[in-house]
Write a structure and sequence with these properties.
The complex is a heterodimer of chains A (336) and B (316). Chain A is α/β, with parallel strands linked by helices and 336 residues long. Chain A contains 13 helices and 11 strands. Chain A has 2 domains: 22-98 and 276-333, D-Maltodextrin-Binding Protein, domain 2 (3-Layer(aba) Sandwich); 100-253, 3-Layer(aba) Sandwich (D-Maltodextrin-Binding Protein, domain 2), CATH 3.40.190.10. In chain A, the strands form 2 sheets. Chain A has an 8-stranded mixed beta sheet with strand order 2-1-3-11-4-8-6-7. Chain A has a 3-stranded mixed beta sheet with strand order 5-9-10. Chain B is an all-alpha fold. Chain B is built from 15 helices and 2 strands. Chain B has helices at residues 2-35, 37-43, 46-49, 63-94, 97-112, 115-135, 139-142, 156-180, 184-192, 197-207, 209-225, 228-233, 251-258, 265-299, 306-315; strands spanning 53-54, 59-60. In chain B, helix 9 (184-192) packs across helix 10 (197-207). The relative contact order of chain B is 0.15. The chains are: A alpha/beta (336), B mainly alpha (316). Chains A and B meet through helix 3, helix 4, strand 7 and helix 9 of A and strand 1, helix 6 and helix 13 of B.
């Protein structure tokens, strides 16, 4: 009897594996919660498709995709020209959802929500503004009595898309920041302490009076951490939310480059949060394995349209319609 | 005939396993060198001595990480060694018989706690205490470079303290084993000559000296490579500073932090070269401890560690 069971089991397993198509991908950790949800939902509708995603970091995803060890990648920052040349094949960047990065701070004496400009944030993270009662911060926050306390800067110690977006924004608004720090997933910070992950930064900020750091909007929302508003390029002070982040992408749709490699930080327009960014799925444009490619394109079409419904409940900002239309067209370029 | 061939195949088999160890070590060294070739070619020996770490402009120097690793490990060693040896001596020489097993078991339990748990404890318990300590430091003392720095809590002192706590169980368990294996004839001889209890313990320690140095070096090796707990409390800021309060960085921590996102070739090679440096330093420390053990052994009258184990069996 036991043997019979075993034989039946083995048979069932072989039959199942013969029909199941497995597709492996790797990359950014930031979109992992929604990607897992999407792959799970997609599997429910297409039981024969199993998409495995390893959230090993954007850099790792780009490396593995270039080396051909995974079928698709994912990244929080667009691939550089060098990286694309290095890969040796054409890669389509597919924006999937959006994220924002928010400044979090801990000043026990202040309960009001602070306002920042990009310039002030850049100067704080450059170590040029060192006290909370600095004239630059005070003039933005009339009526708030800021204490004469040293500012402790907390940044990410691990390479991260969050740092990339933060530095991308600060570099756009401060030439000085661009020159001395620059934009990357890890940079050479002139001041402050490094903590690992959003939870590390938030934890250290919570513990350290007088500190300021930056975390993903999702992380701040889920953990109910209060954060400051930031002045947009139109001069409004905008509080980050899934809507104000999506607005940034809608504005960008008008001048969207064909390859979708675009930075949408400091975007113009009304009610636009300036520290926003896409996260991208990286697909091969003309892969040898056409069967898998067909599935990935089908999945991507669903993810950027029907799949967007899952975004707000998971804290991600959904893609605006204008961008989705452009992407659906671009997906036709993929060989399938 | 059959039996001698058995002997031969057994010898070849075990020999192959032994050779495997050597091959693995050589393989690691080879692979680390190969994968850091770009960085080695570009920076050469300057990699050891410069302190800029700028992934954006592609300028890499490992000095702050080497400094942070050695400084935190040596501080941890200074803090942990007296405590660990105290524990070992108490358990093996002075403790009441009923307490001996539970105490030994508890110290070994400390060694089994995963380092991430130590890290969390560090973040939530140790760091706030260190911050209070730093805030309470008088201004006069702050002028000394050792205590100069912002009261952040995270920094070199927190890292050294947590490393010390993590190292203690290793050093003390091995030291306790060594003292346990000192033949009772040694102590009896000391007592026969009219020695006090303290003097008899000194004799036992002298007998096991080389083993105890080994135990201390084992702790040092553990401190050098510790990653998770350290990165959670050291502040991760690459700078060479004698200050206990300033945030610093270690080699293992920077690899763990930056490896996943390093997409640029030179950057990746520089990170792997840090791994190579850590490998070289660890091998160096091990060689040093070997030499230390050899030199004490040559001077000591006592036989090697192997003998006491045999002697104890006879005594038992």
């Amino acid at each position: 009897m036991k043997k019979l069971f075993l034989a039946a089991f083995v048979l069932a397993a072989t039959v199942a594996s013969a029909q199941t198509v497995q597709i492996n991908g790797a990359g950014a950790t930031f979109p992992n919660p929604i990607y897992s949800k999407w792959f799970d939902e997609y599997h429910k509708v297409h039981p024969n498709v199993e998409i495995n995603y390893q959230p090993i970091g954007s850099g790792g995803g780009i490396r593995q995709l270039s080396a051909g060890t995974v079928f698709f990648g994912a990244s929080d920052g667009p691939m550089t020209n060098e990286q694309i040349t290095g890969a040796g094949f054409r890669i389509l960047h597919v924006p999937t959802v959006l994220g924002g990065v928010v400044p979090v701070y801990n000043i026990p004496e202040v309960s009001a929500e602070l306002r920042f400009t990009g310039k002030v944030l850049a100067d704080i993270f450059l170590g040029k503004i060192t006290k909370w009662d600095d004239a630059g911060i005070r003039s933005l926050n009339p009526g708030v009595s800021l204490p004469n306390v040293d500012i402790t800067v907390v940044h990410r110690s691990d390479g991260s898309g969050t740092s990339y977006i933060w530095c991308d924004y600060l570099s756009k608004v401060s030439p000085d920041f661009k020159k001395t720090v620059g934009v990357a997933t890890s940079v050479n910070w002139p001041t402050g302490v490094g903590a690992k992950g959003n939870e590390g930064v938030a934890g250290l900020v919570r513990q350290t009076p007088g500190s300021i750091g930056y975390v993903e909007l999702i992380y701040a929302l889920q953990n109910k951490i209060s954060y400051g508003s930031v002045q947009s390029s139109d001069g409004e002070f905008v509080r980050a939310s899934t809507e104000t982040v999506s607005n940034a992408a809608a504005v960008a749709a008008k001048n969207m480059p064909k390859d979708f490699r675009v930075s949408i930080t400091n975007a113009p327009g009304h009610d636009v949060y300036p520290i926003s960014s896409f996260t991208w799925l990286l697909l091969q444009e003309s892969p040898k394995d056409v069967a898998r490619s067909r599935i990935m394109v089908d999945f991507a079409r669903w993810a950027i349209s029907g799949g967007q419904g899952f975004a707000p409940q998971l804290g991600y900002a959904p893609l605006p319609k204008e961008v989705v239309a452009l992407e659906l067209e671009a997906l036709n370029r993929v060989k399938q | 005939m059959k039996r001698s061939s058995d002997d031969r195949s057994f010898r070849i088999g075990t020999g192959a396993f032994a050779a495997l160890v050597l091959l693995i070590v050589l393989g690691i060294a080879f692979e680390l060198t190969r994968q850091s070739a770009l960085s080695i070619a570009k920076f050469g020996l300057k990699f050891w001595t410069t302190s800029t770490w700028d992934p954006v402009s592609g300028d890499f120097g490992a000095l702050p990480f080497i400094w942070g690793t050695l400084y935190s490990s040596i501080l941890a060693l200074l803090l942990a060694t007296p405590i660990a040896l105290g524990i070992a001596i108490f358990i093996s020489e002075l403790s009441p018989r009923v307490l001996r097993q539970p105490l030994a078991y508890l110290t070994e339990l400390l060694a089994a706690i995963p380092s991430i748990v130590y890290g969390l404890w560090g973040v939530f318990v140790l760091v706030p205490i260190v911050r209070k300590l730093e805030l309470a430091t008088p201004a006069a003392l702050k002028k000394i470079p050792l205590f100069n720095g912002p009261p952040l809590g995270v920094g070199m002192l927190a890292a050294a303290l947590i490393l010390a706590v993590m190292v203690i169980p290793f050093t003390s368990s091995v030291a306790r084993e060594i003292l346990k294996n000192v033949p009772s004839t040694q102590r009896e001889a000391a007592y026969a000559l009219g020695a006090t209890r303290w003097e008899a313990i000194k004799v036992a320690i002298g007998f096991g000296k080389s083993g105890i140095i080994g135990a201390v070096m084992l702790g040092f090796g553990r401190a050098l490579g510790e990653t998770m707990a350290v990165t959670m409390v050291i502040g991760n800021s690459p700078q060479v500073s004698a200050s206990l309060f300033k945030p610093q960085y270690t080699m293992a921590a920077v690899i763990a932090n930056e490896f996943t996102e390093a997409a640029d070739e030179l950057y990746l090679h520089a990170l792997i070269e840090i791994g190579l440096l850590l490998f070289i330093i660890t091998v160096g420390v091990n060689l040093l401890s070997r030499m230390l053990i050899w030199s004490t052994k040559r001077r000591a009258v006592a036989p090697t560690i192997v003998t006491p184990i045999v002697a104890e069996e006879v005594a038992a």
